[in-house]
Amino acid sequence: MNRALSNGGEALGASRSEGFSSVSTSDPCQHAASLRGWSQDYLQLSAGAFHGEIVEATTGPVQVFLESIDQRVDEKASPRRDSYTIGIPIDVREGGYWQGYHLERDSLMTLRPNEELHFRTPDYSSILVTVIDCAALDELAATAGVEIPSLIPRRNAVPLNTELARRYRAALSEALTCSITTPEVLKHEASRKAIAESVMSASLSALSARHESRERACGGHAVQRAIVERARSYVLANREKAPTVTELSAHLKMSRRGLHHAFMNVLGINAATFLRYVRLHGARKDLLRAAPSESVSSIACRWGFWHMGMFSCYYKALFGETPSATLRQPPRLLGTSPLRPN
Question: What fold does the segment set 221-328 form as a domain?
Answer without folding.
Answer: Arc Repressor Mutant, subunit A (1.10.10)
